[in-house]
Write the structure tokens for this entry.
Amino acid sequence: MRKDLLRTGYVLAIVAGAWGCAKPRVVGRATLDEGTGVGVPAPGVTVNFINLGGAIDESVVSVQTDVKGQYKSPELPPGKYTVEAMLPGYVIGRTTVELKKHGAKKAPFALKKIQETRGRSLKESDTENIPTPGEVKIQAPN
């Protein structure tokens, strides 16, 4: 009888651990928005977790996404966090999550490519007094 009670208590402890008694974390997936409507997994994205209520020197934790674009923060203290996803050439993704004592919050990101700007036109250079190469006159020293 005692053995059965111990076994039942052990099973209940395992089940309780599986039902949301985990430490707070932020989880998600980062994809690249290439304009096709299908998100391409984004490996190597830096994901920062900034504790908005913590001390400055202890408030930022970072992880990298895996080959599938997935990430999982380390265990974090409860509180409000800004989560940022950064990859060179892409607009920084930001969201805010509030972590309670237990469980995980999802924060997925679809990063958009930074649009390149074109060079200045001749009209713009005229109005801003930017010389063109043919207008620059260099005199030889005497």
In short: The first helix runs from residue 2 to 18.
